[in-house]
Amino acid sequence: MPLGTEESVDPDYPRLIELMRPLREGSVTTTTRVLWVLAGLGALVQFAVLLIYSLNKFHHFDLSEDYGIVNQATYLIARGHLNPFDTIYQDQFWRDQFSLLAWPLGALRLVARSGITLLVIQSLSLAATTFVLLLVAIRVLLRQHFSLAWRLVMLAGFGLLILTDPWLYETASFDFHFQSIAALTLLLAVIGFLRQRPWLAWIMIGLTLLAGTSEILLVIGLGLGLLLLAQRRVQGLLVVAVGLGWLAVDLILGAHQSTTFALSYGYLSQVHRQNPSLMAIIEGVLAHPGLPLHVLASRHSAIGEILGYSGVLGVLFGPATMVTLLAIGANGLQHSAAFLSLQSGGFQNFPEVVLLEMGTVLMGTWLLARLRSSPRWVRWPLGGAMGVVVVMIAALGIDVDRGIPPQWLTVPPRVAAQLQTVAIPADDEVVVSEGIVGRFADRADVFAIFARDQHFQACSSTIFVVVAARNGFEIDPPIRSAGIVRDLDNDHDAIMRLRDPQVHVYELQRQPVGAFLSFSSARGVKVSRVPAFGDERCTDEDGAALS
Question: How far apart (Å, rounded) are the C-alpha atoms in residues 382 and 364?
Protein backbone atom coordinates (compact mmCIF):
# COMPACT_ATOMS: atom_id res chain seq x y z
CA MET A 1 0.00 0.00 0.00
CA PRO A 2 1.47 3.43 -0.96
CA LEU A 3 2.61 5.53 1.92
CA GLY A 4 0.24 8.30 2.88
CA THR A 5 -2.70 6.15 3.90
CA GLU A 6 -3.89 6.24 7.46
CA GLU A 7 -2.81 2.65 8.05
CA SER A 8 0.76 2.97 6.78
CA VAL A 9 2.02 6.19 8.41
CA ASP A 10 4.10 6.12 11.58
CA PRO A 11 1.80 7.35 14.41
CA ASP A 12 4.50 9.82 15.47
CA TYR A 13 4.63 11.31 11.98
CA PRO A 14 1.95 13.69 10.61
CA ARG A 15 -0.17 12.41 7.76
CA LEU A 16 0.55 13.75 4.30
CA ILE A 17 -2.74 15.62 4.47
CA GLU A 18 -1.51 17.38 7.62
CA LEU A 19 1.72 18.36 5.87
CA MET A 20 -0.19 20.29 3.22
CA ARG A 21 -2.33 22.34 5.60
CA PRO A 22 -1.50 26.03 6.10
CA LEU A 23 1.33 26.89 8.47
CA ARG A 24 0.31 27.74 12.01
CA GLU A 25 -0.16 31.36 13.03
CA GLY A 26 3.18 32.91 13.96
CA SER A 27 5.24 30.19 12.26
CA VAL A 28 5.96 32.32 9.17
CA THR A 29 9.44 33.54 9.97
CA THR A 30 11.92 35.69 8.07
CA THR A 31 13.55 32.48 6.82
CA THR A 32 10.20 31.34 5.43
CA ARG A 33 9.70 34.59 3.58
CA VAL A 34 13.21 34.47 2.17
CA LEU A 35 12.60 30.93 0.91
CA TRP A 36 9.34 32.03 -0.75
CA VAL A 37 11.17 34.88 -2.47
CA LEU A 38 13.94 32.54 -3.64
CA ALA A 39 11.34 30.12 -5.02
CA GLY A 40 9.68 32.99 -6.87
CA LEU A 41 12.99 34.19 -8.28
CA GLY A 42 13.89 30.67 -9.41
CA ALA A 43 10.55 30.30 -11.21
CA LEU A 44 10.87 33.79 -12.69
CA VAL A 45 14.33 33.02 -14.09
CA GLN A 46 12.99 29.77 -15.51
CA PHE A 47 10.10 31.62 -17.14
CA ALA A 48 12.52 34.08 -18.74
CA VAL A 49 14.67 31.23 -20.08
CA LEU A 50 11.64 29.35 -21.42
CA LEU A 51 10.19 32.48 -22.99
CA ILE A 52 13.44 33.46 -24.72
CA TYR A 53 13.83 29.89 -25.96
CA SER A 54 10.21 29.77 -27.22
CA LEU A 55 10.47 33.13 -28.98
CA ASN A 56 13.67 31.93 -30.61
CA LYS A 57 11.83 28.87 -31.90
CA PHE A 58 9.02 31.09 -33.19
CA HIS A 59 11.36 33.35 -35.12
CA HIS A 60 13.27 30.33 -36.45
CA PHE A 61 10.01 28.77 -37.78
CA ASP A 62 10.70 25.65 -35.65
CA LEU A 63 7.01 24.94 -35.10
CA SER A 64 5.28 21.98 -36.71
CA GLU A 65 1.73 20.68 -37.05
CA ASP A 66 0.89 20.30 -33.35
CA TYR A 67 1.41 24.02 -32.82
CA GLY A 68 -0.21 24.71 -36.17
CA ILE A 69 -3.45 22.96 -35.22
CA VAL A 70 -3.94 25.04 -32.06
CA ASN A 71 -2.63 28.19 -33.72
CA GLN A 72 -5.20 27.88 -36.50
CA ALA A 73 -8.07 27.01 -34.16
CA THR A 74 -7.46 29.90 -31.74
CA TYR A 75 -6.90 32.29 -34.66
CA LEU A 76 -10.29 31.37 -36.11
CA ILE A 77 -12.08 31.45 -32.72
CA ALA A 78 -10.73 34.95 -32.09
CA ARG A 79 -12.28 36.00 -35.41
CA GLY A 80 -15.71 34.63 -34.65
CA HIS A 81 -15.47 31.13 -36.18
CA LEU A 82 -16.64 29.22 -33.11
CA ASN A 83 -16.53 25.82 -34.82
CA PRO A 84 -13.06 25.98 -36.42
CA PHE A 85 -12.07 23.45 -39.04
CA ASP A 86 -8.62 21.88 -38.79
CA THR A 87 -7.33 21.90 -42.37
CA ILE A 88 -4.07 20.15 -41.40
CA TYR A 89 -5.80 16.93 -40.30
CA GLN A 90 -9.05 17.69 -42.15
CA ASP A 91 -11.56 17.51 -39.32
CA GLN A 92 -13.46 19.71 -36.89
CA PHE A 93 -11.01 20.94 -34.28
CA TRP A 94 -13.13 19.86 -31.30
CA ARG A 95 -12.82 16.26 -32.50
CA ASP A 96 -9.06 16.45 -32.01
CA GLN A 97 -9.11 14.91 -28.52
CA PHE A 98 -11.76 17.28 -27.18
CA SER A 99 -9.36 20.12 -26.33
CA LEU A 100 -11.97 22.69 -25.31
CA LEU A 101 -9.41 24.95 -23.63
CA ALA A 102 -8.75 26.29 -27.13
CA TRP A 103 -11.89 28.44 -26.85
CA PRO A 104 -10.69 30.48 -23.82
CA LEU A 105 -7.30 30.80 -25.50
CA GLY A 106 -9.04 31.98 -28.66
CA ALA A 107 -10.84 34.64 -26.62
CA LEU A 108 -7.48 35.73 -25.23
CA ARG A 109 -6.21 36.18 -28.78
CA LEU A 110 -8.81 38.87 -29.27
CA VAL A 111 -6.40 41.03 -27.30
CA ALA A 112 -3.04 39.33 -27.91
CA ARG A 113 -3.52 38.45 -31.56
CA SER A 114 -0.13 36.95 -32.38
CA GLY A 115 0.50 33.21 -32.33
CA ILE A 116 3.34 33.97 -29.90
CA THR A 117 0.59 34.20 -27.25
CA LEU A 118 0.35 30.40 -27.13
CA LEU A 119 4.07 30.05 -26.42
CA VAL A 120 3.93 32.73 -23.72
CA ILE A 121 1.06 30.89 -22.01
CA GLN A 122 2.95 27.62 -22.21
CA SER A 123 6.11 29.12 -20.73
CA LEU A 124 4.10 30.79 -17.95
CA SER A 125 2.28 27.54 -17.11
CA LEU A 126 5.54 25.58 -16.91
CA ALA A 127 7.25 28.15 -14.69
CA ALA A 128 4.14 28.39 -12.47
CA THR A 129 4.24 24.60 -12.04
CA THR A 130 7.84 24.85 -10.86
CA PHE A 131 6.90 27.63 -8.43
CA VAL A 132 4.06 25.58 -6.91
CA LEU A 133 6.30 22.52 -6.52
CA LEU A 134 8.92 24.63 -4.76
CA LEU A 135 6.27 26.05 -2.41
CA VAL A 136 5.14 22.51 -1.60
CA ALA A 137 8.74 21.56 -0.72
CA ILE A 138 9.10 24.64 1.50
CA ARG A 139 5.79 24.02 3.28
CA VAL A 140 6.55 20.36 3.97
CA LEU A 141 10.08 20.96 5.21
CA LEU A 142 9.09 23.81 7.49
CA ARG A 143 6.85 21.42 9.40
CA GLN A 144 9.78 19.19 10.33
CA HIS A 145 11.86 19.39 13.47
CA PHE A 146 15.09 19.30 11.53
CA SER A 147 17.84 21.80 12.10
CA LEU A 148 17.82 24.81 9.79
CA ALA A 149 20.93 23.47 8.01
CA TRP A 150 19.25 20.12 7.33
CA ARG A 151 16.13 21.80 5.99
CA LEU A 152 18.13 24.07 3.68
CA VAL A 153 20.15 21.14 2.35
CA MET A 154 16.99 19.13 1.73
CA LEU A 155 15.29 22.08 0.07
CA ALA A 156 18.32 22.60 -2.16
CA GLY A 157 18.15 18.95 -3.20
CA PHE A 158 14.43 19.07 -3.99
CA GLY A 159 14.83 22.42 -5.76
CA LEU A 160 17.65 21.03 -7.90
CA LEU A 161 15.49 18.06 -8.87
CA ILE A 162 12.55 20.31 -9.80
CA LEU A 163 14.45 23.06 -11.62
CA THR A 164 16.50 20.68 -13.77
CA ASP A 165 13.59 18.44 -14.78
CA PRO A 166 14.27 17.60 -18.47
CA TRP A 167 10.62 16.70 -19.06
CA LEU A 168 9.70 20.34 -18.51
CA TYR A 169 12.22 21.66 -21.04
CA GLU A 170 11.26 19.02 -23.59
CA THR A 171 7.63 20.09 -23.17
CA ALA A 172 8.62 23.67 -24.01
CA SER A 173 10.70 22.45 -26.95
CA PHE A 174 8.02 20.69 -28.98
CA ASP A 175 5.38 23.11 -30.28
CA PHE A 176 2.42 23.95 -28.00
CA HIS A 177 0.46 21.33 -26.08
CA PHE A 178 -2.32 21.52 -23.53
CA GLN A 179 -0.40 19.16 -21.24
CA SER A 180 1.67 22.17 -20.17
CA ILE A 181 -1.49 23.67 -18.68
CA ALA A 182 -2.97 20.38 -17.47
CA ALA A 183 0.14 19.62 -15.41
CA LEU A 184 -0.39 22.82 -13.41
CA THR A 185 -4.14 22.37 -12.98
CA LEU A 186 -3.76 18.73 -11.94
CA LEU A 187 -1.11 19.66 -9.37
CA LEU A 188 -3.32 22.39 -7.94
CA ALA A 189 -6.24 19.94 -7.82
CA VAL A 190 -4.19 17.53 -5.67
CA ILE A 191 -3.14 20.36 -3.38
CA GLY A 192 -6.73 21.54 -3.13
CA PHE A 193 -7.90 18.12 -1.96
CA LEU A 194 -5.02 17.65 0.50
CA ARG A 195 -5.43 21.12 1.97
CA GLN A 196 -9.22 20.82 2.20
CA ARG A 197 -9.86 23.50 -0.42
CA PRO A 198 -12.60 21.78 -2.43
CA TRP A 199 -13.44 24.91 -4.45
CA LEU A 200 -9.85 25.06 -5.72
CA ALA A 201 -9.72 21.31 -6.38
CA TRP A 202 -12.94 21.18 -8.41
CA ILE A 203 -12.12 24.26 -10.48
CA MET A 204 -8.79 22.69 -11.37
CA ILE A 205 -10.44 19.35 -12.14
CA GLY A 206 -12.76 21.14 -14.57
CA LEU A 207 -9.88 22.90 -16.32
CA THR A 208 -7.94 19.65 -16.55
CA LEU A 209 -10.89 17.91 -18.22
CA LEU A 210 -11.13 20.73 -20.77
CA ALA A 211 -7.53 20.08 -21.85
CA GLY A 212 -8.41 16.95 -23.83
CA THR A 213 -9.24 13.26 -23.96
CA SER A 214 -5.92 12.08 -22.53
CA GLU A 215 -6.37 14.36 -19.53
CA ILE A 216 -9.66 12.63 -18.72
CA LEU A 217 -7.59 9.55 -17.89
CA LEU A 218 -5.38 11.66 -15.61
CA VAL A 219 -8.42 12.87 -13.69
CA ILE A 220 -9.73 9.32 -13.31
CA GLY A 221 -6.27 8.30 -12.10
CA LEU A 222 -6.28 11.12 -9.56
CA GLY A 223 -9.62 9.92 -8.24
CA LEU A 224 -8.32 6.38 -7.89
CA GLY A 225 -5.27 7.75 -6.08
CA LEU A 226 -7.42 9.69 -3.62
CA LEU A 227 -9.13 6.42 -2.74
CA LEU A 228 -5.78 5.37 -1.22
CA LEU A 229 -5.92 8.30 1.22
CA ALA A 230 -8.22 7.37 4.10
CA GLN A 231 -9.63 10.87 4.57
CA ARG A 232 -10.19 11.57 0.88
CA ARG A 233 -12.06 8.50 -0.34
CA VAL A 234 -15.39 10.26 -0.84
CA GLN A 235 -13.73 12.94 -2.94
CA GLY A 236 -11.91 10.20 -4.83
CA LEU A 237 -15.17 8.49 -5.74
CA LEU A 238 -16.64 11.78 -6.91
CA VAL A 239 -13.59 12.55 -9.05
CA VAL A 240 -13.72 9.11 -10.68
CA ALA A 241 -17.44 9.57 -11.36
CA VAL A 242 -16.89 13.00 -12.93
CA GLY A 243 -14.03 11.68 -15.05
CA LEU A 244 -16.05 8.71 -16.27
CA GLY A 245 -19.01 10.98 -16.98
CA TRP A 246 -16.88 13.31 -19.10
CA LEU A 247 -15.38 10.30 -20.87
CA ALA A 248 -18.93 9.17 -21.70
CA VAL A 249 -19.64 12.59 -23.21
CA ASP A 250 -16.44 12.24 -25.25
CA LEU A 251 -17.52 8.82 -26.51
CA ILE A 252 -21.08 9.88 -27.32
CA LEU A 253 -19.94 12.91 -29.30
CA GLY A 254 -17.16 10.98 -31.00
CA ALA A 255 -14.72 13.72 -30.01
CA HIS A 256 -11.88 11.20 -29.68
CA GLN A 257 -12.05 10.02 -33.29
CA SER A 258 -9.54 12.42 -34.76
CA THR A 259 -7.12 11.16 -37.35
CA THR A 260 -4.23 11.23 -34.90
CA PHE A 261 -6.12 9.15 -32.33
CA ALA A 262 -6.93 6.38 -34.79
CA LEU A 263 -3.35 6.34 -36.09
CA SER A 264 -1.97 6.13 -32.56
CA TYR A 265 -4.10 3.34 -31.09
CA GLY A 266 -5.86 1.75 -34.03
CA TYR A 267 -3.51 -1.26 -34.10
CA LEU A 268 -4.85 -2.37 -30.69
CA SER A 269 -8.33 -2.91 -32.11
CA GLN A 270 -7.07 -5.91 -34.10
CA VAL A 271 -9.45 -4.92 -36.91
CA HIS A 272 -8.30 -3.97 -40.39
CA ARG A 273 -10.27 -0.84 -41.06
CA GLN A 274 -9.46 2.85 -41.15
CA ASN A 275 -10.11 5.03 -38.08
CA PRO A 276 -11.41 2.43 -35.58
CA SER A 277 -13.47 3.84 -32.72
CA LEU A 278 -12.39 3.95 -29.08
CA MET A 279 -14.84 1.17 -28.26
CA ALA A 280 -13.30 -1.03 -30.96
CA ILE A 281 -9.86 -0.40 -29.47
CA ILE A 282 -11.07 -1.27 -25.94
CA GLU A 283 -12.65 -4.47 -27.23
CA GLY A 284 -9.38 -5.37 -28.96
CA VAL A 285 -7.37 -4.89 -25.76
CA LEU A 286 -9.80 -7.02 -23.74
CA ALA A 287 -9.70 -9.76 -26.36
CA HIS A 288 -5.88 -9.73 -26.70
CA PRO A 289 -4.42 -8.47 -23.37
CA GLY A 290 -0.98 -9.86 -24.15
CA LEU A 291 -0.36 -7.30 -26.92
CA PRO A 292 -0.41 -4.14 -24.77
CA LEU A 293 1.68 -5.85 -22.07
CA HIS A 294 4.29 -6.82 -24.65
CA VAL A 295 4.37 -3.28 -26.05
CA LEU A 296 4.89 -1.71 -22.59
CA ALA A 297 7.59 -4.24 -21.68
CA SER A 298 9.49 -3.37 -24.85
CA ARG A 299 9.49 0.30 -23.81
CA HIS A 300 10.80 -0.16 -20.26
CA SER A 301 13.72 2.24 -20.76
CA ALA A 302 11.36 5.14 -21.55
CA ILE A 303 9.26 4.28 -18.49
CA GLY A 304 12.47 4.36 -16.45
CA GLU A 305 13.07 7.95 -17.63
CA ILE A 306 9.67 8.99 -16.29
CA LEU A 307 10.31 7.49 -12.87
CA GLY A 308 14.01 8.32 -12.67
CA TYR A 309 14.01 12.05 -13.46
CA SER A 310 11.12 12.61 -11.03
CA GLY A 311 13.13 11.16 -8.15
CA VAL A 312 11.69 7.60 -8.01
CA LEU A 313 10.17 8.00 -4.53
CA GLY A 314 7.06 9.61 -5.98
CA VAL A 315 5.67 6.21 -6.92
CA LEU A 316 4.91 5.70 -3.21
CA PHE A 317 2.48 8.63 -3.24
CA GLY A 318 -1.01 7.26 -3.98
CA PRO A 319 -2.38 9.96 -6.35
CA ALA A 320 0.87 10.04 -8.34
CA THR A 321 0.95 6.24 -8.53
CA MET A 322 -2.48 5.86 -10.11
CA VAL A 323 -2.10 8.83 -12.47
CA THR A 324 1.23 7.46 -13.66
CA LEU A 325 -0.16 3.97 -14.28
CA LEU A 326 -2.96 5.30 -16.49
CA ALA A 327 -0.72 7.83 -18.24
CA ILE A 328 1.94 5.26 -19.06
CA GLY A 329 -0.79 3.01 -20.42
CA ALA A 330 -2.19 5.81 -22.60
CA ASN A 331 1.13 7.14 -23.86
CA GLY A 332 3.09 3.89 -23.92
CA LEU A 333 0.51 2.05 -25.99
CA GLN A 334 0.55 4.50 -28.87
CA HIS A 335 1.72 3.01 -32.13
CA SER A 336 4.95 5.00 -31.99
CA ALA A 337 7.25 4.73 -28.99
CA ALA A 338 8.08 8.41 -29.48
CA PHE A 339 5.14 9.49 -27.31
CA LEU A 340 6.64 7.78 -24.27
CA SER A 341 10.21 8.86 -24.89
CA LEU A 342 11.83 11.87 -23.30
CA GLN A 343 13.76 12.62 -26.48
CA SER A 344 10.76 13.06 -28.78
CA GLY A 345 7.47 13.35 -26.88
CA GLY A 346 8.15 14.73 -23.42
CA PHE A 347 4.98 16.81 -23.34
CA GLN A 348 2.79 13.68 -23.18
CA ASN A 349 4.22 12.58 -19.83
CA PHE A 350 4.80 15.91 -18.13
CA PRO A 351 1.61 15.93 -15.97
CA GLU A 352 2.40 12.63 -14.24
CA VAL A 353 6.06 13.62 -13.84
CA VAL A 354 4.91 16.70 -11.91
CA LEU A 355 2.83 14.60 -9.52
CA LEU A 356 5.71 12.16 -9.12
CA GLU A 357 7.98 15.06 -8.17
CA MET A 358 5.46 16.21 -5.59
CA GLY A 359 5.35 12.63 -4.28
CA THR A 360 9.15 12.54 -4.11
CA VAL A 361 9.11 15.66 -1.92
CA LEU A 362 6.54 14.13 0.43
CA MET A 363 8.03 10.66 0.56
CA GLY A 364 11.61 11.94 0.75
CA THR A 365 10.66 14.07 3.75
CA TRP A 366 8.94 11.08 5.33
CA LEU A 367 12.06 8.92 4.95
CA LEU A 368 14.37 11.63 6.27
CA ALA A 369 12.08 12.13 9.25
CA ARG A 370 12.38 8.43 9.99
CA LEU A 371 16.16 8.64 9.66
CA ARG A 372 16.24 11.47 12.20
CA SER A 373 15.37 9.03 14.97
CA SER A 374 17.89 6.43 13.74
CA PRO A 375 21.43 5.99 15.07
CA ARG A 376 23.99 8.32 13.58
CA TRP A 377 25.83 5.46 11.87
CA VAL A 378 22.59 4.71 9.96
CA ARG A 379 21.38 8.26 9.47
CA TRP A 380 24.45 9.78 7.84
CA PRO A 381 25.24 7.04 5.28
CA LEU A 382 21.61 6.77 4.15
CA GLY A 383 21.13 10.53 4.08
CA GLY A 384 24.35 10.92 2.13
CA ALA A 385 23.29 8.20 -0.33
CA MET A 386 19.99 9.98 -0.97
CA GLY A 387 21.89 13.22 -1.59
CA VAL A 388 24.22 11.53 -4.07
CA VAL A 389 21.24 10.07 -5.94
CA VAL A 390 19.57 13.50 -6.19
CA VAL A 391 22.79 15.10 -7.51
CA MET A 392 23.23 12.30 -10.06
CA ILE A 393 19.65 12.64 -11.30
CA ALA A 394 20.04 16.42 -11.58
CA ALA A 395 23.37 16.02 -13.41
CA LEU A 396 21.81 13.63 -15.91
CA GLY A 397 18.87 16.00 -16.33
CA ILE A 398 21.15 18.97 -16.97
CA ASP A 399 23.01 16.94 -19.59
CA VAL A 400 19.71 16.22 -21.36
CA ASP A 401 18.66 19.88 -21.08
CA ARG A 402 21.93 21.01 -22.65
CA GLY A 403 21.23 18.82 -25.66
CA ILE A 404 17.77 20.22 -26.36
CA PRO A 405 18.53 23.33 -28.48
CA PRO A 406 20.51 21.55 -31.25
CA GLN A 407 17.91 18.79 -31.29
CA TRP A 408 14.89 21.04 -31.74
CA LEU A 409 16.23 24.22 -33.36
CA THR A 410 16.77 22.66 -36.76
CA VAL A 411 15.88 25.54 -39.08
CA PRO A 412 19.17 27.36 -39.83
CA PRO A 413 19.13 31.12 -39.15
CA ARG A 414 19.82 31.80 -42.83
CA VAL A 415 16.72 29.86 -43.90
CA ALA A 416 14.62 31.50 -41.17
CA ALA A 417 15.77 34.93 -42.34
CA GLN A 418 14.75 34.03 -45.90
CA LEU A 419 11.30 32.89 -44.77
CA GLN A 420 10.82 36.13 -42.83
CA THR A 421 11.05 38.05 -46.12
CA VAL A 422 8.13 36.16 -47.70
CA ALA A 423 4.93 38.12 -47.25
CA ILE A 424 1.84 35.90 -47.62
CA PRO A 425 -1.57 37.64 -47.33
CA ALA A 426 -3.71 36.29 -44.49
CA ASP A 427 -6.56 35.41 -46.87
CA ASP A 428 -4.46 33.25 -49.19
CA GLU A 429 -4.13 29.50 -48.79
CA VAL A 430 -0.76 27.96 -47.98
CA VAL A 431 0.64 24.47 -48.48
CA VAL A 432 3.72 24.00 -46.28
CA SER A 433 6.20 21.28 -45.37
CA GLU A 434 5.27 19.58 -42.12
CA GLY A 435 8.29 20.72 -40.09
CA ILE A 436 7.54 24.46 -40.33
CA VAL A 437 3.78 24.55 -40.93
CA GLY A 438 3.03 25.93 -37.45
CA ARG A 439 4.19 29.47 -38.22
CA PHE A 440 1.93 29.65 -41.28
CA ALA A 441 -1.23 28.40 -39.53
CA ASP A 442 -2.74 31.71 -38.45
CA ARG A 443 -5.16 31.61 -41.36
CA ALA A 444 -8.31 29.75 -42.37
CA ASP A 445 -6.64 27.41 -44.87
CA VAL A 446 -3.23 25.88 -44.30
CA PHE A 447 -2.14 22.41 -45.38
CA ALA A 448 0.87 20.35 -44.31
CA ILE A 449 2.92 18.30 -46.78
CA PHE A 450 3.58 14.90 -45.21
CA ALA A 451 5.58 12.00 -46.62
CA ARG A 452 2.57 10.50 -48.38
CA ASP A 453 0.19 11.23 -51.24
CA GLN A 454 -2.24 14.04 -50.44
CA HIS A 455 -5.00 15.99 -52.13
CA PHE A 456 -5.97 19.55 -51.21
CA GLN A 457 -9.03 21.36 -52.44
CA ALA A 458 -8.22 24.98 -53.18
CA CYS A 459 -10.82 27.59 -52.28
CA SER A 460 -8.70 30.55 -53.33
CA SER A 461 -7.41 31.59 -56.73
CA THR A 462 -3.98 32.25 -55.20
CA ILE A 463 -2.10 29.53 -53.35
CA PHE A 464 1.37 29.66 -51.81
CA VAL A 465 3.51 26.52 -51.60
CA VAL A 466 6.44 26.47 -49.16
CA VAL A 467 8.78 23.48 -49.53
CA ALA A 468 11.44 23.08 -46.81
CA ALA A 469 11.70 19.33 -46.68
CA ARG A 470 14.49 18.91 -44.13
CA ASN A 471 13.83 21.80 -41.77
CA GLY A 472 11.93 21.92 -38.52
CA PHE A 473 10.57 19.00 -36.56
CA GLU A 474 9.30 16.23 -38.83
CA ILE A 475 7.34 13.27 -37.45
CA ASP A 476 7.24 11.55 -40.84
CA PRO A 477 10.49 10.98 -42.77
CA PRO A 478 11.48 14.16 -44.65
CA ILE A 479 9.67 14.43 -47.95
CA ARG A 480 11.55 14.04 -51.20
CA SER A 481 10.93 17.53 -52.47
CA ALA A 482 12.74 17.28 -55.82
CA GLY A 483 9.62 16.18 -57.70
CA ILE A 484 7.47 18.93 -56.18
CA VAL A 485 10.04 21.62 -56.94
CA ARG A 486 10.52 20.32 -60.51
CA ASP A 487 6.81 20.38 -61.28
CA LEU A 488 6.32 23.85 -59.82
CA ASP A 489 9.30 25.15 -61.79
CA ASN A 490 7.55 23.95 -64.96
CA ASP A 491 4.13 25.32 -64.01
CA HIS A 492 3.39 28.52 -66.00
CA ASP A 493 1.07 29.78 -63.26
CA ALA A 494 3.67 29.27 -60.50
CA ILE A 495 5.75 32.33 -59.63
CA MET A 496 8.89 31.67 -57.62
CA ARG A 497 9.06 33.93 -54.57
CA LEU A 498 12.11 32.34 -52.93
CA ARG A 499 14.70 29.86 -54.08
CA ASP A 500 17.28 28.46 -51.70
CA PRO A 501 19.01 25.07 -51.47
CA GLN A 502 16.85 24.31 -48.40
CA VAL A 503 13.61 26.19 -49.03
CA HIS A 504 11.46 27.08 -52.04
CA VAL A 505 8.41 29.34 -52.04
CA TYR A 506 5.98 29.49 -54.97
CA GLU A 507 2.85 31.51 -55.62
CA LEU A 508 0.27 29.69 -57.74
CA GLN A 509 -2.01 32.16 -59.49
CA ARG A 510 -5.23 31.87 -61.51
CA GLN A 511 -6.30 28.65 -59.80
CA PRO A 512 -9.94 27.60 -60.40
CA VAL A 513 -11.81 27.79 -57.09
CA GLY A 514 -12.54 24.22 -56.00
CA ALA A 515 -9.72 22.66 -58.00
CA PHE A 516 -7.64 19.92 -56.39
CA LEU A 517 -3.88 19.96 -55.85
CA SER A 518 -2.28 16.52 -55.59
CA PHE A 519 1.05 16.27 -53.79
CA SER A 520 3.26 13.21 -53.86
CA SER A 521 6.71 12.89 -52.32
CA ALA A 522 7.65 10.64 -55.23
CA ARG A 523 5.81 12.11 -58.22
CA GLY A 524 5.70 15.80 -57.40
CA VAL A 525 2.59 17.98 -57.64
CA LYS A 526 -0.33 17.90 -60.03
CA VAL A 527 -3.06 20.54 -60.28
CA SER A 528 -6.56 19.70 -61.46
CA ARG A 529 -7.67 22.63 -63.60
CA VAL A 530 -11.30 21.54 -63.43
CA PRO A 531 -13.24 22.84 -60.42
CA ALA A 532 -14.73 20.01 -58.39
CA PHE A 533 -17.14 21.03 -55.67
CA GLY A 534 -17.28 17.73 -53.82
CA ASP A 535 -17.81 19.17 -50.32
CA GLU A 536 -18.78 22.37 -48.50
CA ARG A 537 -15.28 23.78 -48.10
CA CYS A 538 -15.61 26.12 -51.06
CA THR A 539 -19.21 27.25 -50.49
CA ASP A 540 -20.63 30.02 -48.35
CA GLU A 541 -23.40 29.65 -45.75
CA ASP A 542 -26.05 29.77 -48.51
CA GLY A 543 -24.38 26.98 -50.46
CA ALA A 544 -23.13 29.27 -53.25
CA ALA A 545 -19.66 28.69 -54.67
CA LEU A 546 -17.03 31.12 -53.47
CA SER A 547 -15.36 33.17 -56.15
Answer: 12
